[in-house]
């Protein structure tokens, strides 16, 4: 069984292109997941599956731009895997046309771990929780995604991450959605320095994968976001990132960016100077 959630959009969810910002989609996924786990199954009454979990990994594929509208966007969510101490939720964000066709904007997966926040430790799923998740189970036979590379970052794309008090959830940890915002800020800041002196360039995000290693906590000192270029194509590039506290890795991410033509609303090949500066950062 799949759970369907009708998610209202907010005007503030848009970016400068008039599209729903890539960071906001992850907020929509969280809303759909919490609604699914708080309203169905024998474990719903405790709320622990909805709120007493931490995100171990996000895999997000952006399929098509979503424009703001007063009509809610539909989100289907279901479970693809149940293990001893983790479970995976898959999602599809879409609108249905009057003819009954589906316009898909995003597909994603989230790996979650039940967590005892008082003791700061993961725990195993209970039988009641497994029964609840089993009601949404549709096993996925596709091969698992490759883990993120363990390359070394480039100081050219370093960004200090300042945590706001509003970024922190009720457990004192930075909410998983905010990591996407930190990565976006680091990417925009780094490209502004990298392409200084060139005309502004429009980019969209095609794919974001994030592995969560340890919690980020509120504090006055910034954390470090280190990014580097791992692939450069004619119309796209891949940026790998680490969020660190000194030498300790807190999160690892990979983002595929696409060069975008606002006039045609399609990918485009940028002028050579943009690619040259990206290629200069590739590992030798």
UniProtKB/TrEMBL annotation:
One Pfam family it belongs to: 4HBT_2
SUPFAM superfamilies: Thioesterase/thiol ester dehydrase-isomerase
CDD domains for this protein: 4HBT
Gene3D superfamilies in alphabetical order: Hotdog Thioesterase
Signal peptide span: none
The protein's name in its UniProt record: Acyl-CoA thioesterase
Organism field: Nocardioides mangrovi
């Amino acid at each position: 069984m799949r759970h369907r959630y009708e998610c209202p959009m907010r005007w503030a969810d848009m970016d400068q292109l008039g599209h729903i910002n890539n960071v906001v989609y992850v907020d929509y996924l969280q809303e759909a997941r919490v609604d699914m786990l708080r309203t169905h199954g024998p474990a719903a009454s405790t709320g622990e599956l909805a709120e007493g979990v931490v995100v171990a990994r996000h895999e997000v594929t952006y399929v098509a731009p979503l424009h703001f509208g007063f009509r809610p966007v539909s989100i289907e969510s279901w479970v693809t895997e149940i293990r001893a101490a983790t479970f995976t939720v898959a999602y599809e964000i879409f609108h249905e046309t009057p003819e009954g066709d589906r316009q898909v904007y995003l597909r994603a997966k989230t790996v979650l771990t039940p967590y005892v926040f008082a003791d700061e430790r993961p725990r195993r799923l209970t039988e009641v929780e497994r029964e609840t998740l089993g009601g949404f189970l549709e096993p996925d036979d596709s091969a698992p995604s490759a883990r993120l590379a363990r390359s070394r970052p480039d100081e050219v794309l370093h960004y200090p991450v300042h945590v706001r008090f509003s970024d922190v959830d009720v457990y004192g940890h930075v909410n998983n959605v905010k990591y996407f915002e930190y990565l976006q800020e680091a990417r925009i800041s780094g490209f502004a320095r990298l392409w200084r002196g060139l005309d502004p360039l429009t980019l969209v995000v095609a794919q974001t994968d994030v592995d969560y290693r340890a919690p980020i906590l509120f504090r006055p000192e910034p954390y470090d976001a280190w990014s580097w270029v791992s692939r450069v194509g004619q119309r796209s590039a891949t940026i790998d990132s680490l969020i660190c506290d000194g030498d300790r890795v807190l999160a690892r991410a990979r983002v595929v960016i696409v060069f975008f033509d606002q006039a045609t609303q399609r990918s485009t090949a940028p002028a050579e100077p943009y690619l040259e500066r990206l290629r200069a950062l590739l590992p030798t």
